[in-house]
Amino acid sequence: MEVPRNSGTAERLYRSMYLIRRVEEEIIRLYPSDKIKSPVHLSIGQEAVSAAVCDHLERSDYVFGTYRGHALYLAKGGDLPRMMAELYGKAHGAARGKAGSMHLVDVDVGMMGTSAIVATGISNAVGAALALKMRRSTAIVVCFFGEGAVDEGSFHESINFASLKRLPIVFVCENNFYAIYSHVKDRLAGPGLVERARSYGVTAERIEDGDALACHAAVGSAIEAVRRGEGPRFLECMTYRWRDHVGPGEDRQYHYRPEAELDLKIRNDNLAALGRLLPSDLKQLIEAEEEARIAAAIDWAEKGEFPAASEIRNHVFAD
Questions:
Q1: Model confidence over 244-260: pLDDT tens digits?
Q2: Which among 23, 143, 224, 245 could bridge 125 via Cys, Cβ 3.0 to 4.6 Å?
Q3: What backbone phi and psi angles, to 5 degrees, belong to 239?
Q4: At what angle do helices 80-87 and 8-30 cross, to 10 degrees?
Q5: Cβ 35 vs Cβ 86: under 8 Å
Q6: In whole angstroms, what is the distance from residue 232 CA to residue 229 CA?
Q7: pTM for this one?
C-alpha cells in the first residue's frame, strides 16, 4: 500500500474507517449494560469497503444496505448522534427509536435504509435506479449486500433487469466468506460470484482484501463508468468480519472458522496499515477529533427520552 499523490484520499479513508471502528468498539463496550435496545451486526474488519465506496459518492447518490449497516451509514455521512440514539431506542434517533441497528436510515444524505431480510434491499435499489434514470438524474445508486444474498432469486431478477435497462447502479458484494456460520465454499456451486454477474451482461470485478487504497481506486473506476451511462457494475469486495455474525462476541467458541484464519486477518488490519501511512501528528489529530464526536454522540443518546406510548401507532402506514 502506497500513499497516493493526493494524500487526502488516505486521510479521508482513515478518518472514515477509524470512526466506524471506534463506534463499533463503543457498542461492544456498552452492549452488556443493556442500554442498547437492539441486536447489532458489527462491521469490524470490513470498514474499508464502505469507506472506499462512499468516498466517491455525492450527497445526492443513494445507498441501500443490509442489517450489517453501521459502516455504510457512517461512511455515507449519516448523523452519528441520531444513530447512537436509535440504538438506544430513543425518540430523537434516526427512526425515532423504532428501527434499531438493523434498519438505519438518513434520507438527507442518501442513506435509504437497511434491511434485516437477506437480498431484499437489492430490488429496492434497482427500483430507485430506474426512477433516477426516468427522471434523467445524474445521481447513481449503490447497493451493498453479502455473498449469501447472491443465492437469492431477488439478486438474479434484479441484476438481470438492471442490465436490460442499463441502470445507474453499482452492486457491491461484501464477501466476508461466511453467511452466518457457513463458508462460501460449502454453498457456492459454479465458477464464482463475478462470473454469475457477467452471465447477465454486467461488467464485474473482484477486489482482493488487504489494501484500502487499491479498493478505492478500483471502485472509483466502476463508479465513473456508471456515471457515464455505461450500465451497471458488479464489485465483489473481499473482506472479513472479526466478530460474531450477530452480537459483540468474537464467536471463537463455535469453531466454524479456524483460529489461525481469524488471527491472520486481525494481524493484517486494514485500518492499522492505512494509519501507518499518515504522519503521526495528523493521525493523532484525526483520532482525537473522532473520539470527541463519538463521546458527544453517546452522551446525547443517553440523555434523550424514550418515545411516548402514544407513538406506537404512528408511522405504521404512509400518509
A1: 999 999 889 999 999 99
A2: 143
A3: -155, -170
A4: 20
A5: no
A6: 9
A7: 0.94
